[in-house]
């Protein structure tokens, strides 16, 4: 691992560099904490605030792992923390606004405790305008580091703590894949497992290919090892993570091994439940569908973002499929894996989207019979191609479109739940319900939230539940 970078120099991000896709081979390197860093955190505490997607949640677990290896203990309150890291998301403007608010709020804490080390990490740190603003206006932020150099956290904390210097180090291009990273997992029986990093799709609205770099797959050996260890530790479910898991393995130069192969192999490792997110429709292949059909542990739920139902809009989004080809893949999937539950992501108000385009999206929702969706109004991301597209739809119209779409999506949630009425489903019990501590809550194989009465010993177990009522957002049942 190259640890010789002069960290006193600021490394600012650069979107033009981040856009480039180098041919350089990615190496696999092992993380090692140097002796000097082992005791830095003894008698000190940390907290991490996580925003954004599961990728960020997994990264925060790594940051926690590194900090605990350095001796820091997790703090329940930020007032007592010696180190606070904000792991940020840049996907939409409102995600960023929340974080600016949070940074402003933490200024007071820094004033009360000047020794506090405040760090900004994650996707926002990869944006040059963000780093410039932090450098000028948020002097109380001590560390800024991006998504490619989390493994260097020990050096950064050391510099901030002992040299009292600001550390701003963001790499615009991905480096190697670092293995053997420690993790403190947030959940006792469900775990995130990264299978790949980065994204090469370059959907025109999206910042992720710039903030996460080029697609790099972890070796199957490392993934299988991680999942096997999780089985030994009593984990029941893994969610395989990547921005486009269907492109897994496409970057391997010497072996032919794709996502379908990985699913098949992981099915034999002994983990009860395998889920994955997220998929891109144009990379979804038959081998993956067949692995889902044949696997005993691969859950019958597929999150397949469609984004729009209009062909001209899909083209402008650079999605590489049409409404018809999406439905063809979807129908093939439904045929091969009968009863599978399908959810999606949809953007309304993309530049140039007119009423007719929007109706195509509504029609798409009807035809695909989605059982859930994350829906968004287009948000302009500086540096992406869509930021320059002419956008003359008033915000009010976009909000109306979102409202109409959500009504339809909610019908889909209800229909998706109703099909389990009077059936017995298997539920991995997460814990007690948020609303009633006499009630247990967990997810079925099809990823439906189920509430039922039971005892706390069932937490962490897979329990059979007979469904008695279907609501829009959850199912009610009785343990059998
Ligand atoms: N790699 C995943 C997830 C990406 S982010 C995928 O391709 O599905 C999750 C969702 O955020 C996207 O699917 C998209 O619907 C939405 N999104 C991304 N960029 C956006 C933007 N600029 N404005 C609004 N929504 C956006
Ligand atoms: Fe963004 Fe598209 Fe990549 Fe998903 S596939 S992360 S939407 S560029
Ligand atoms: Fe946000 Fe970065 Fe994930 S922009 S959605 S945290 S990849």
Automatic annotation (TrEMBL):
Q: Which GO terms describe its molecular function?
A: 4 iron, 4 sulfur cluster binding; metal ion binding; tRNA-2-methylthio-N(6)-dimethylallyladenosine(37) synthase activity
Domain (TRAM): give its ranges.
418-480
**Which cofactors does this gene product need?**
[4Fe-4S] cluster
> Where found in the cell?
Cytoplasm
Query: What binding details are noted for the cofactor?
Result: Binds 2 [4Fe-4S] clusters. One cluster is coordinated with 3 cysteines and an exchangeable S-adenosyl-L-methionine.
The record's annotation in SUPFAM superfamilies points to: Radical SAM enzymes
Query: Residue limits of the Radical SAM core domain?
Result: 185-415
Cytoplasm: present as a keyword of the record? yes
Q: Which UniProt keywords apply?
A: 4Fe-4S, Cytoplasm, Iron, Iron-sulfur, Metal-binding, S-adenosyl-L-methionine, Transferase, tRNA processing
Q: Where is the MTTase N-terminal domain?
A: 44-162
Q: Which PROSITE patterns match?
A: MTTASE_N (PS51449), MTTASE_RADICAL (PS01278), RADICAL_SAM (PS51918), TRAM (PS50926)
Query: Which InterPro entries does the entry mention?
Result: Elp3/MiaA/NifB-like_rSAM, Methylthiotransferase, Methylthiotransferase_CS, Methylthiotransferase_N, Methylthiotransferase_N_sf, MiaB_methiolase, rSAM, rSAM_horseshoe
Binding-site list for [4Fe-4S] cluster 1: 53, 89, 123
Q: Which domain of life is it from?
A: Bacteria
Fetch the HAMAP family from UniProt.
tRNA_metthiotr_MiaB (MF_01864)
Q: Which family does it belong to?
A: Belongs to the methylthiotransferase family. MiaB subfamily.
What job does this protein perform? Catalyzes the methylthiolation of N6-(dimethylallyl)adenosine (i(6)A), leading to the formation of 2-methylthio-N6-(dimethylallyl)adenosine (ms(2)i(6)A) at position 37 in tRNAs that read codons beginning with uridine.
Q: What is this protein called?
A: tRNA-2-methylthio-N(6)-dimethylallyladenosine synthase
Organism in which the protein naturally occurs: Peloplasma aerotolerans
**Which gene is the coding source of this polypeptide chain?**
miaB
């Amino acid at each position: 691992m190259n640890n010789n970078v002069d960290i006193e120099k600021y490394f600012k991000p650069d979107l033009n560099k981040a856009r480039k896709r180098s041919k350089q081979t990615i190496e696999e390197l092992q993380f090692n904490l140097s002796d000097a860093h082992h005791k830095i955190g003894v008698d000190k505490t940390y907290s991490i605030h996580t925003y954004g997607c599961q990728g960020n949640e997994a990264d925060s677990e790594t940051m926690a792992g590194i900090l605990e290896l350095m001796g820091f203990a997790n703090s329940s309150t930020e007032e007592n923390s010696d180190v606070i890291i904000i792991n940020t998301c840049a996907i939409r403007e409102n995600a960023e606004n929340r974080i600016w608010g949070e940074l402003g709020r933490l200024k007071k804490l820094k004033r009360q405790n000047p020794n506090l080390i405040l760090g900004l990490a994650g996707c926002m740190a990869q944006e040059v305008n963000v780093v410039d603003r932090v450098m000028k206006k948020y002097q109380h932020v001590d560390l800024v580091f991006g998504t490619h150099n989390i493994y260097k956290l020990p050096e950064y904390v050391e510099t901030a703590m002992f040299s009292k210097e600001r550390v701003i180090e963001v790499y615009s291009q991905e480096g190697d894949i670092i293995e053997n990273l420690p993790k403190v997992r947030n959940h006792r029986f469900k775990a995130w497992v990264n299978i790949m990093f980065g994204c090469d799709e370059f959907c025109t609205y999206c910042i992720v290919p710039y903030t996460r770099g080029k697609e790099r797959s972890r070796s199957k050996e490392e993934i299988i090892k991680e999942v096997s260890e999780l089985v030994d530790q009593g984990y029941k479910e893994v969610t395989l993570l990547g921005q486009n898991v269907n492109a897994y393995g496409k970057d391997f130069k010497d072996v032919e091994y794709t996502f379908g192969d990985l699913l098949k192999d992981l099915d034999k490792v002994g983990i009860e439940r395998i889920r994955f997110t997220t998929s891109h429709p144009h990379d979804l292949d038959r081998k993956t569908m067949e692995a889902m059909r044949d696997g005993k542990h691969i859950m019958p739920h597929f999150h397949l973002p469609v984004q729009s139902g209009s062909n001209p809009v899909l083209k402008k989004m650079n999605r590489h499929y049409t409404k018809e080809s999406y439905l063809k893949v979807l129908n093939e999937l439904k045929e091969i894996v009968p009863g599978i539950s399908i959810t999606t992501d949809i953007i309304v108000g993309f530049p140039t989207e007119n009423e007719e385009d929007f109706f195509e999206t509504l029609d798409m929702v009807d035809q695909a019979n989605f059982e859930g969706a994350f829906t968004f109004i287009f948000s302009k991301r500086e540096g992406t191609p869509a930021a320059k597209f002419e956008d003359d739809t008033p915000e009010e119209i976009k909000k109306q479109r979102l409202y109409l779409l959500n009504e339809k999506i909610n019908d889909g949630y209800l229909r998706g739940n109703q099909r389990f009425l009077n059936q017995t489903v298997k539920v991995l019990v997460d814990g007690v319900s948020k609303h009633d501590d006499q009630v247990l809550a967990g997810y079925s194989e099809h990823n439906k939230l189920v509430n039922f009465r039971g005892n706390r010993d069932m937490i962490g177990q897979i329990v059979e539940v007979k469904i008695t009522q279907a609501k829009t957002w959850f199912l009610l049942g009785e343990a059998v």
